[in-house]
Amino acid sequence: MPDFAPIHALYLAVAIALEIAANVLMKFSEGFRRKLPAAAAILCALAAFTALSYAIEGIQLSVAYGVWGGVGLIATAILGITLFGERLRPSGWLGLLLITSGVVLLKFT
Which residue ranges does UniProt annotate as crossing the membrane (predicted)? Predict the structure, then answer.
């Protein structure tokens, strides 16, 4: 991965964590019928985009967005399996493998 200041990596990590939290809170909101998790999901999503905007000040947009989206998606899928008992078909596992490969390949851009 190209050189960047550690603060930008921290912003990216915060953005990823907030995106994952927003996704899990959306599930807990039951289609936005439960107001508290719904409001928290919206706040987490807005905060995630804010943190991402700070991260891309020092990290290439393609790298930051790719890592943010890829890691967030993988972590959300794992939490869906562990917290909500969701199941993935073999094609879903293949998709996660391909996303992981893509994020790793971004290291070399």
Answer: 6-26, 38-56, 62-84, 91-108
